[in-house]
Structures
1.
Amino acid sequence: MRRRRPRFYIASLGCAKNTVDAEGIATLLRRAGYLATGDPARADVVIVNTCGFIAAAREESLTTLRSLAEQITPRQKLIAAGCWAQREPERLRQLLPDLDAIVGTRTWHEIPRIVQELSRTEAPIVNVQRRKVVMPEEAGTGGYVRFGASAFLKIADGCSRGCAFCAIPGIKGPTVSRPLEAILEDARQLRDAGVLEINLIAQDTSFYGHDLGMRDGLAPLLEGLVEAVPDLPWLRILYLFPGFITDRLIDVIAAYPQVLPYVDIPLQHADPAILRRMRRPADVEAVKRTIGRLRERMPEITLRTTFIVGFPGESEREFLTLLRFVEAMRFDRVGVFEYSHEEGTAAASLKDDVPPEVKAARRDALMMAQQRISLEKNKALVGSRLAVLLEGSSDGLTIGRTYRDAPEIDGLVLIEGEHGSGRLVEVEITAALPYDLQGRLVA
Ligand code: SF4
């Protein structure tokens, strides 16, 4: 009789960088003889790749872990991996005493060995170390995750910036860039597998290569990618740090049609005093000049940014500076987060003195202002024709994205009729919603 192959179930929470690590864990477990299952009840090993950088993310991770802990039997093993596991292993043990293992972000590649060890012991295993973050090369896996005809490709991990509100440098350590050739090889594999869109990710893509001795490393990386996969239609860069968008980088984005005119610069605030307290670049005039240069070189560019409201000491006047900035700059996409007071960050020594209802009201005011701008920009597109990457169809409708929409965070194009998925088509825009567009396929 054939022996049943052991199965694993993995749930990944948080950002795309975590999803890439989860894909790496899955690859290693498959290599070790495990089968993936989408049903935790059938799994021998259940893994939650947690997110832990703010309270809301930890809450979601806890809910997922608790729900799985209630469902599984004593013969199944439950493992908490990822950022929260790295950040607070002791707290996780207190909250979930039945966990079989806790594995941090810097040892995720050891999960197959840990699973083996769990079959021989009843004692919980905690494997959380303060070494440098593990990159796919070290683990022998790809550094990407595919979804349909798109992929996230990790170019670096960790962060060397030290923003006052952010726990990431503590969780992941300083930036570690992947070797250029490893990234190019991943891109070739993705292209050969039929991927049409690669999204480059890192905590801060503009830092790429500094630790490898490169200057302005993202520009040569993009040039290398264009050369390695010239037939890849969409190459998108996410998460650029303000002050590091150099003229050379702008030249490269503008020069190659494959590199999408889409720039995501999380600015976090627009009041210089708040930015200084956040330990971020505080030269708002320089940010305006960079945005001006991007728009001058690429009038069709889509600009995305994110802001934090309610940072310690944020006065009404400072918030109004931010609101006026958003109204004046007319970004295409804006994400707004309420400040989360995090232990172990520099801002934890400040008083979290903006009341929750004020944080929420400021977030709403910023979102309302941006919604008006977004609708106006979308209305201006009605009647134009845009390339759309189809993502799926059902019930007489197809959804897709234009170059203006990064996966998972931006809007969609809703197209009449069922036209399948995984191809680029031309769509005439027929109507505008605040964040999405409607259109019809051009025959
Ligand atoms: S750039 Fe700042 S906000 Fe972004 S991950 Fe690094 S420390 Fe955190």
2.
Amino acid sequence: MIYTLTLNPAIDYNMELPQLKTGGVNRSAKEYIRYGGKGINVSAVLAQLGEDTEALGFIAGATGDRLEEGVRAMGVKTGFIKLKRGMTRINVKLHADTETEINAAGPEIDDAALGELYAKTDELRDGDTAVLAGSVPGSLPRDIYERIAERLSDRDIRIAADAEKELLTAVLKYRPFVVKPNIHELSAIFGVDIADIPAAEKYARELQKMGAKNVLVSMGGDGALLLDEDGDTHFRAAFSGRAVNTVGAGDSMLAGFLAGVGKGYEYALLLGTAAGAATAFSEGLADKRMIDELLERSGGDEI
Ligand SMILES: Nc1ncnc2c1ncn2[C@@H]1O[C@H](COP(=O)(O)OP(=O)(O)OP(=O)(O)O)[C@@H](O)[C@H]1O
Ligand SMILES: [Mg+2]
């Protein structure tokens, strides 16, 4: 089972309007909701790829119930902890002449709920994967990913980490199976400006020296580089196509990598690249049909 963790999930309320006027009344022409959070994105794409996956994290109130229903409808199992107070946040995304986002803080997570989350992670078994992705809300300890990684380290559990700066580097000592920084995050970790593939490879090797087994560096439309646990590097250019929305492309790539890795690293990178592109080319997240189409386009010979 691949478990994903989304500490502060959100319902994204999207509104489309021709123009946004601040300080006045606006009317939207179209609205739609999406269920947001990095871990949930990873689970959603894993489900498209036929993988068994369960989303963990905290939900609260009626919006939390709605989010859980929505996540289940995507074919993802849920093991959310229900907080006694507050409500799962609704983030408002305004698509007008400009793009405006208002992201809510989310509910307060108390120590009892945190204890429940730790207890949940104790249920993971040998062979399971835990995806630790996204930011950590202010009411939780900053070192939560590190604490979870430590708790998991007494079992044969693969950790996949996709988070910024010290949230990512702090788990390296627990030898995560894969880390997936994008090129900007990799640059920020080392305080440098990584502009080409040789530099990306150099700093991927640094992360490997610090403990990561596999390092997957995504570079948006410029493709992705994988430094595998044997020290071999693989590069794959991005699929060409019209990008509609690249938010979640990295989460989708991580899902593809995890779903494909049983067939080797070359295939894991291919499936990751196809899943990332399928999200970039869609309004929402990647679906199976588009991923399959892209795989077909790549020619079957490398699979
Ligand atoms: N415009 C694009 N065209 C084709 N493929 C893309 C495009 N953008 C992203 N991808 C694919 O998805 C992968 C991941 O994208 P990216 O590097 O943008 O991730 P990210 O910044 O972590 O995104 P997020 O955190 O929003 O999920 C890329 O390596 C690439 O293979
Ligand atoms: Mg990302």
